Amino acid sequence: MDDDELITRLAAGDDGALRELFSRHAPWLAARLRTVLPAADVEDVLQETFLAVWRGAGSYRPMGAAGGWLWSIGRRQAAQLLRRRGPAAMALPDAGLPDGSHASDPAEAALIRADLEQAVAALGPPGGPDREVWRLMYVEDRPVAEVAELMGVPQGTVKSRAHRARRLLRAALGGTPSAEGGAR
Predict the structure, then answer these.
(1) What integer is the mean pLDDT of 40-47?
(2) What is the DSSP string of 117-139?
């Protein structure tokens, strides 16, 4: 049964359809929400998203992919959460130097951050497989098994993408990869 049929069944009151939609779409929705929200808020917004899906199933019109409709609801729920909180004071990340010391000059710290942003861009667009694995494993410190479940891929694929991401970051930051694809 495709997503459009599930949403039609959900609109008719079939709770099993909501469970099926959730199991199909929650992992990738959670991964995308992590790109716009702090990790601690993702579960709440995901629940609010599927509550809104349940309430709005009757107004769904299958004019495109159901995933796009789900994402638009999730994005609205995330925006509502962020609006309710108001502007947040964001602390600048601590810019460390390669030798482990910290930049005392703000200009030097900004250059370090720019270099890191450029290196991360080498992983591909936001939401791309290598960049998403890097973010989930190294920014959010999630284990391989959880990343595999969130992305809907085998653990071996996550490990391969993590290896490729490390190699790409190393090359972008000026490291010298070894003959087998990466310095150890």
Answers:
(1) 91
(2) HHHHHTT-STT-HHHHHHIIIII
All structural domains of the chain: 3-85 (1.10.1740.10), 122-172 (1.10.10.10)
Under 8 Å between Cβ of 129 and 107:
no
What is the mean predicted confidence (pLDDT) over 107-132?
72
How far is the CA of 76 from the CAs of 52, 70, 79, 179, in angstroms? 10, 10, 5, 47
Kindly give, in sequence order, each residue whose CB lies less than 8 Å from that of residue 167, ignoring residues fewer than 6 positions away: 177, 181, 182
Residues paired with residue 96 on neighbouring β-strands, in sequence order: 102
Burial of 42 (0-12, 13-18, 19+ CB in 10 A): buried
Q: What are phi and psi of 16, to 5 degrees?
A: -65, -30
